[in-house]
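Archive maintenance. Older records in this collection stored only the sequence; we are now back-filling the structure field for every entry so that each record is complete. The fields below show one back-filled record exactly as it appears after the update. Entries are processed alphabetically, and L-threonine dehydratase is next in the queue.

ARCHIVE ENTRY
Title: L-threonine dehydratase
Organism field: Sphaerotilus montanus
Length field: 510
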Amino acid sequence: MPSERQTLLTSYLQRILTAKVYDVARETELDPARSLSARLGNQVLLKREDNQPVFSFKLRGAYNKMAHLTAEQLARGVICASAGNHAQGVALGSKRLGCRAVIVMPETTPRVKVDAVRALGGEVVLVGESYNDAYDHAMQLAEVEGLTFVHPFDDPLVIAGQGTIGMEILRQHQGPIDAVFVAIGGGGLISGVAAYLKAVRPEIRVIGVQTVDSDAMLQSVRAGHRVRLNDVGLFADGTAVKFVGEETFRVARELVDEFIVVDTDAVCAAMKDVFQDTRAILEPSGALSVAAVKQYVAREGCTGKTFVAITCGANMNFDRLRFVAERADVGEEREALFAVTIPEERGSFKRFCELIGPRSVTEFNYRISDERRAHIFVGLSTSRRGESAQIGDLFATQGFAALDLTHDELAKAHLRHLVGGRSDLAVNERLFRFVFPERPGALMRFLSSMHPDWNISLFHYRNQGADYGRILVGIQVPDADGSAFQQFLDTLAYPCVDETDNPVYRLFLR
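Back-filled structure field:
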């Protein structure tokens, strides 16, 4: 008599082999991530579901479910709840099948996803802050209007549609595969992929990936029953699910080998890695699998293995790229952040910069506030993980008290953007914006050119990856030194703008 596991595998294998997905979906590429592979010492293959017509895998499961509906059900129409990607799949499927589609989405859904659903003809209803809020409202509408609910993950037909990704992976790469990494929201994708892989190639490890603030599946598997989260993080909105499905929990608990959780900075770094290899910009949820591959390799210390990461979506709100770029280097630990205390005396700023030596300064924030001590926020480029601790020790040996902020969320999200406020000590202050070539030594040239009697009272700089850097500097210049200061500016030859009379400066800083 077959075991429960074998029965599960047999039933899903049949559903996946007979799934109807290719009327709307395409077989996506299995691309090598060459730069990332070389850096990790393992072959990393990207299953490019971000290249689907709706830039996500979700149309596979949605269409497979809808293609199995009766003519009467299609005539009444369908409804779904989704953070965006499943919504686009349902909208595209309904357009193909010629039926009405009502899409209930959380109010937090990125605008790019809402606009995409409307462009496909979906009737969008925005409700609540998370998927579960949208789900409750969609179920009410389904009952009132007689619509058929198309679940984003907790349906065997939806799961089977997603499972066709596993089928394609094995067809495209018939050599050894050590593990496949799959992002988890509600669990539909990993359930389908795991069902196919374990039925055909059971030696391949299936590793689920969630964010540290949206790990409902991991908590459920550990508890032995479905756990409902009170809140979920919204950065990776595509996987922000408070309560996983009953069927997906049953399948994942039985078939998934391991779960890995990753944080926001690691996801941002993974998005950058994929961009460097493919020039594609993934959404955060689409990069979870890549972040987990890196974390797994670092933990296991393995080389020569073959890993597949499913890049499951690219519905990225363009405005969020600012945040991603800011956090990517910290996620890769290519930048260390510190709060450093130095003596408030002329020359100490320059002495501190000399101590930094050949390291690139990625950020520098300072505002005069105390007659004896100066507190500065500084970012420095690093070349390897764990280097921030060594830099902190170097500061301490030279008499500069330093607090390592590399992993401090308050510092990374807010403090780095604060220059300071008004200061009674900033007498005779003049404010300038400078533009200078972004190359080693430019900052030291600026400091070395200054007259020793002129004190820097404000400094703000952030490397934005451009060829030219921009700094905001407050310099205390006595009125009698006006001509000498002008000569300093002319000799420096950096383009600058005098902002001393800017009303914003006078309102917030002077």
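Update note: The chain is about 40% helix and 20% strand. Residues 4-55+156-328 form a domain with the Rossmann fold fold (CATH 3.40.50.1100).
Entry marked complete.
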